[in-house]
Design goal:
- There is one protein chain.
- By secondary structure, the chain is an alpha+beta fold.
- The chain has 2 domains: about 5-55; about 60-235, Cyclophilin-like (Cyclophilin, Beta Barrel).
- Helix content is about 40%, strand content about 20%.
- It has 6 helices and 8 strands, in the order αααββαββαβββαβ.
- The protein has helices spanning about 5-20, 20-55, 60-70, 95-105, 135-140, 205-215; strands spanning about 75-80, 85-90, 115-120, 125-130, 160-165, 180-185, 200-205, 230-235.
- Strands 3-4-6-5-7-2-1-8 form an 8-stranded antiparallel beta sheet.
- A hairpin with a 2-residue loop joins strand 1 and strand 2.
- It is globular.
- The protein starts with a helix and ends with a strand.
């Protein structure tokens, strides 16, 4: 037997020994399978995140989206945290698009860092916007859209009602600006607003905080001289 034959025989024995070592092969196969599963899971998570990041609400898709979203997101109580105290709100079920829109934005953490930017004592306090660039970037990520009015549900702008302002653009149908809201602070209500803005909730705790904010000094634009931030909004049910 020459050198070539010896080398071939040794190589053959190594292959046979390897085949007869099922423990090693099983572990190696298991590692390969586990690694493959991890890769697949990572790809699924990454793909899901990418879809969520790419999805944006528009005037064309918002109604269909909120119609489906409302089915599985029935929460109707939220708590607004400010430096002056907390305001708890109950959202009305008979204004489903506005309620689910508010819940959606809450779960997206949109309101964190927004402000009560329009404060008029004995009238309303309005929130959900800011001159901070980060808030504008949040809006860009969520999408640009308006909500249809829904002001024929039997609600009136009495004290404590939470309503949604109309968009500032040319707006004959009084489409609502979905990122903002105002709370009626006036003791006798603001009934001249009825039929123009969608009321979608009511303050059930914390009207004293609303009064504190309403009494703050403001500039000529009704913006508080000291910024009033919404630290966060939390779902409480």
């Amino acid at each position: 037997m020459n050198y070539s034959s010896n080398f071939f025989l040794a190589w053959l024995i190594l292959i046979i020994l390897g085949c007869n070592n099922p423990t090693v092969n099983s572990n190696e196969k298991l590692k390969i399978i586990e690694n493959k599963d991890l890769i697949i899971k990572d790809e699924v998570i990454t793909s899901k995140q990418k879809i969520e990041e790419e999805f944006k609400l528009t005037d064309e898709n918002v109604i269909d989206f909120l119609f489906e979203y409302e089915k599985n997101n029935k929460e109707n109580r939220v708590r607004i945290y400010t430096n002056f105290g907390n305001i708890e709100i109950m959202l009305f079920s008979n204004t489903p698009y506005h309620r689910s829109n508010f819940i959606y934005l809450t779960k997206k953490n949109y309101f964190e860092g927004t402000q009560f930017y329009r404060v008029i004592n004995d009238f309303v306090i309005q929130a959900g916007n800011s001159d901070n660039r980060k808030i504008s970037q949040k809006r860009q990520r969520i999408g640009k859209y308006l909500l249809p009015n829904d002001f024929n549900k039997g609600h009136t702008h009495k004290r404590g009602m939470v309503s949604m302002p109309s968009s500032s653009i040319d707006n004959p149908y009084k489409m609502a600006s979905p990122y903002e809201f105002f709370i009626v602070q006036k003791k006798d209500g603001a009934h001249h607003l009825d039929g123009n803005y969608t009321i979608f909730g009511i303050v059930i705790n914390g009207m004293e905080v609303v009064d504190i904010i309403a009494n703050l000094p403001t500039d000529e634009r009704d913006w508080p001289l000291n910024n009033v931030y919404i630290n966060r909004i939390e779902i409480v049910n």
